[in-house]
Amino acid sequence: MPEFLELMPPQEALAVWLRAMPEPRVGVERIPSAQALGRVTAEAVRSPEALPGFARSTVDGYAVQARSTHGASDTLPAYLELVGEVPMGAAPGFAVGLGQAAVIHTGGMLPQGADSVVMLELTQTARAGEIEIFKAVAAGENVLKAGEDVGIGEEVLGRGVRLDAAAIGGLMALGLTEVAAARKPLAAVLSSGDEVVPPDRAVRPGQVRDVNSYALAALVESCGGEARLYGIVPDRAEALRAALRRALDEADFVVITAGSSASARDLTAAVIRESGAPGVLVHGVNVRPGKPTILGVCDGKPVVGLPGNPVSALVIARLFVRPLVARLLGAVPGKPQAAVPARLSLNLASQAGREDWVPVRLRREAQGWAAEPIFYKSNLIFSLAHADGLVCIPPDATGLEVGAAVEVVLL
């Protein structure tokens, strides 16, 4: 059997893979909103109340009727009678009429009759019980109206939204201390290779510690999934077949890192092919690093076979595992991945027709960020650990010249 069936562009390979999967059935669990950072909503969230629930001041100053200030200026101030001070955390027990003002603090509730607030800096005390105002205000100025942020019954968060700090704050503002979140999809992570040993074991000549299982599990969890390690599988068909069968039975998707040899990768493809329909969909992606990637679906369960070299495995996992987890969570396309513009500090060569991803360090310069390529071998994990991000060389280029404007996708 040849090592590669056909090299596909990464985006085409991802599309082929995702189309072969059934629509995900997203599990739902109610969790405390305070612990929901990074989780994805399983249903739309509607507001049970208006926010804010009352008209409130956005500044320290004086609550007034706007028409009481018309014409006020530095040379011709308006003089208003002071009728009280708005208590914080309570409704004022008085009203503000024409020609009157009340002391109010940021967040305070507007008294009845008031429709605007004059900033403290635009006033001064004239005499006891009276203030001078040096600038007119318009109705609604420096005021948050009741329901201006959210109305009763309004959808504040859609289904499939990844919750960030602001969203959690919004839930708390509405008294929603629990939220329906998508259950985290479970990834079974298998590492294969006769040369691979657990990290806590001393290595003998020819052996390497298992880097990929732990790095890939961390990546899965960073993008919203849950990972379970299924151990190190020897390069034998019956052992890999049994491990994959168990993983498919217990997990939502499977990540396998194959041994470094071509025969090990072919073994992985053969076992995936026979473990369920439709089997292997992609065997070989036109990308560096990570050409020997395998994408498959076994009776509805996604399976990805990653290269054994740690850098290749992580780069490919970012291209394929991250969007897979998002799909299984029911996440809608949201904020773009964080990236910064930079200029290359060195020439980068590439092969036309192939997409290359190159790790870079970022260095601040007077004109902006400089991207310094890290020249690496794909089995050296710290070449990626020391990188700030990745630069993509598109397939229609034969490289990028020093000084070229690039976008650095942050790691």
UniProtKB/TrEMBL annotation:
It comes from the Bacteria. Pfam families: MoCF_biosynth (PF00994), MoeA_C (PF03454), MoeA_N (PF03453). InterPro entries: MoaB/Mog-like_dom_sf, MoaB/Mog_dom, MoCF_biosynth_CS, MoeA-like, MoeA_C_domain_IV, MoeA_C_domain_IV_sf, MoeA_linker/N, MoeA_linker/N_sf. Its EC number is 2.10.1.1. SMART domains: MoCF_biosynth. Residues 188-327 form the MoaB/Mog domain. Its cofactor is Mg(2+). Keywords: Magnesium, Metal-binding, Molybdenum, Molybdenum cofactor biosynthesis, Transferase. GO terms for molecular function: metal ion binding; molybdopterin molybdotransferase activity. Pathway: Cofactor biosynthesis; molybdopterin biosynthesis. The keyword Metal-binding applies. One of its GO terms (biological process) is Mo-molybdopterin cofactor biosynthetic process. The keyword Transferase applies. Catalyzes the insertion of molybdate into adenylated molybdopterin with the concomitant release of AMP. Belongs to the MoeA family. This is Molybdopterin molybdenumtransferase. It comes from Levilinea saccharolytica. The lineage of its organism: Bacteria, Bacillati, Chloroflexota, Anaerolineae, Anaerolineales.
